[in-house]
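queue> pop job 88
queue> type: inverse folding (structure -> sequence)
queue> payload:
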């Protein structure tokens, strides 16, 4: 979704902002803009990609040492030059960029218009600039106080960066519900909505919390609450390096991230799996192990791909730890007054740690007394800071909008949690623990094997299906969520309509779609449902569907029935999602590339969905 960058220092702010905005491109956006202060307020915008803004900026020759920038993902008002950020107050003296949504903008706007203000855009954002200017110019208070009063009147969410031409050395920032952090450099300061634009300049960051604001100059910053209480904030050290947010020779981030999985899964398992004494150590859960062991049930709430990993988690927790699990779309959970409270555990799963619905589900369950745990990839993210405890996936930054390595790392964490809980509850004895932990330890090598052995053949196969209008994905048990994930991957990056189903459900409707034009991807890892799966494949074959099977080496029954096969090494049944998902990621990637789609930034999608 929208991204914010800000700079105060001695460097060329225009260049630094543009570079920062490029680092935020992965979040999804439809325009970009900057405001620079250089004796006057200079605004430059560009439709579409940041490169267009860059060209406009170069052509206009405007420069400055202090400024703010934005990538906009349209919510209020169509994408056009007037609605792109930054937005100005009526006098043109105040410019601001905004992430989030101001819910009461219509009533505020009406009042300001009645008082004689003229609005240029259709956005909810412009109201902040206009209201701020009105409060500031009609009362005898500082700009900072005027900002605090403004923020008390707006209802909704915001990450804000604001410049005022009368204070040419400062950037004001504020946060409620939309992430913002400050990067502390040497004689320069950075502002951003996530760490990626900052990481090449400094690894020292401060995360703002909701209800906080900051006044930033080139060598100082002051953080306080909107109620004017001064705060001393902890300075965090960023663990990520610049190489992690670059493509490293791959044509797309998505492909890089698919191929990173042997390493990202190993990073996720490292230091947590102990093969010598068959134990699992998840440091983040030590203080909540009792609550987990005695939990009536675990409710998992998440969105998109993270919801799919939650579904795998349901099978894992019920099988390995005998704990009942419900998996909820975070957006549905939060709005139906859920029955959850003391004795229940809510586990939220989020790559970004900023997804608005997941965060709201977390807050809802916390307010009702549940223990709230998280599985997150981004250290310092809001979800990771608001949960009672949790586990980081350590997959490294995921830049491609389509989630790949985050999924496998989430499933790896869920697997470790389920084994640890199963041991703690006495459902897994030492011999079984040794078997599970040794096998889990071998998963990164098996993922590597799949990537090496099947990349080329999947690339070839993708050519045959590039123009298929529909796809069906079928799986059973642990691999039903993988079928959903495979279908989501294909539709989001190639725009081909795809559905995932539990294989047995096919007979209850989707079978009507099958003819000789319909590719059916069957995830047929050999397990106790193998015979049933073979019957389902027969049913597809009888209707001339084209069968692509993801199967274990040597499963000749499946092989004989299939038009195309991708082999995966054998593993314990409950670990198969970590392997079966890999060919599906590659298949969707190559189909999307063949169709000329923008793989890393698919249309209409955002990496981090920070609005409801
Ligand atoms: O950051 P999160 O894991 O909370 O994001 C949830 C979904 O928006 C995300 O998984 C989305 O479905 C992916 N782009 C799918 O590839």
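queue> result:
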């Amino acid at each position: 979704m929208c991204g914010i960058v800000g700079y105060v220092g001695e460097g060329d702010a225009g260049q630094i902002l543009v570079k920062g905005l490029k680092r935020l491109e992965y979040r999804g956006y439809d325009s970009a803009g900057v405001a620079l202060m250089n004796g006057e307020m200079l605004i430059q915008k560009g439709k579409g990609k940041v490169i267009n803004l860059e060209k406009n900026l170069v052509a206009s020759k405007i420069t400055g040492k202090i400024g703010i920038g934005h990538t906009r993902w349209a919510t209020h008002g169509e994408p056009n030059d007037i609605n792109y950020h930054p937005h100005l107050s009526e006098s043109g003296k105040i410019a601001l960029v905004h992430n989030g949504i101001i819910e009461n903008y219509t009533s505020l706007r009406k009042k300001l218009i009645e008082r004689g203000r003229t609005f240029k855009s259709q956005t909810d954002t412009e109201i902040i600039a206009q209201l701020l200017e009105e409060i500031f110019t009609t009362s005898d208070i500082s700009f900072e106080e005027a900002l605090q009063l403004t923020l008390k009147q707006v209802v909704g969410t915001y990450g804000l960066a604001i410049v005022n031409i009368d204070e040419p050395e400062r950037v004001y920032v504020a946060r409620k519900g939309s992430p913002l952090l400050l990067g502390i450099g040497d004689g320069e300061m950075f502002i951003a909505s996530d760490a990626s634009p900052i990481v090449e300049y400094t690894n020292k960051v401060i995360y703002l919390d909701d209800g906080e604001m900051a006044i930033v100059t080139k060598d100082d910053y002051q953080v306080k609450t909107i109620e004017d209480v001064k705060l001393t904030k902890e300075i965090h050290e960023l663990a990520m390096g610049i190489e992690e947010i670059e493509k490293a020779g791959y044509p797309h981030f998505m492909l890089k991230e698919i191929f990173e999985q042997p390493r990202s899964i190993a990073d996720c398992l490292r230091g947590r799996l102990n093969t010598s004494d068959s134990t699992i150590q998840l440091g983040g859960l030590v203080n909540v192990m009792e609550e987990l062991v005695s939990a009536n049930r675990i409710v998992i709430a998440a969105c998109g791909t993270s919801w799919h990993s939650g579904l795998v988690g349901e099978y894992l927790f019920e099988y390995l730890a005998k704990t009942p699990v419900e998996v909820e779309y975070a957006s549905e959970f939060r709005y139906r007054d859920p029955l959850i409270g003391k004795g229940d555990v809510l586990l939220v799963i989020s790559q970004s740690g900023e997804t608005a619905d997941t965060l709201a589900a977390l807050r809802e369950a916390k307010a009702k007394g549940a223990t709230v745990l998280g599985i997150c990839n981004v250290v310092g993210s809001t979800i990771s800071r608001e949960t009672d405890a949790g586990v980081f996936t350590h997959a490294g930054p995921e830049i491609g909008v389509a989630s790949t390595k985050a999924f496998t790392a989430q499933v790896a964490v869920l697997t470790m949690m389920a084994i640890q809980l199963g041991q703690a509850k006495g459902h897994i004895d030492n011999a079984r623990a040794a078997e599970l932990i040794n096998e889990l330890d071998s998963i990164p090598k098996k993922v590597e094997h799949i990537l090496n052995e099947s990349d080329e053949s999947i690339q070839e196969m993708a050519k045959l299906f590039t123009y298929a209008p529909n796809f069906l994905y079928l799986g059973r048990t642990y691999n039903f969520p993988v079928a959903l994930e495979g279908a989501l991957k294909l539709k989001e990056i190639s725009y081909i309509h795809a559905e995932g189903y539990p294989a047995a459900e096919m007979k209850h409707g989707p079978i009507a779609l099958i003819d000789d034009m319909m590719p059916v991807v069957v995830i047929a890892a050999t397990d106790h449902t193998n015979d049933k799966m073979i019957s389902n494949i027969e049913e597809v074959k009888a209707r001339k569907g084209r069968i692509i099977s993801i199967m274990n080496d040597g499963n000749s029954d499946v092989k004989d029935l299939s038009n195309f096969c991708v082999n995966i090494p054998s593993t314990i049944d409950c670990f198969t999602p970590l392997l079966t998902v890999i060919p599906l990621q590659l298949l969707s990637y190559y189909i999307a590339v063949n169709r000329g789609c923008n793989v890393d930034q698919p249309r209409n999608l955002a990496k981090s969905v920070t609005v409801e």
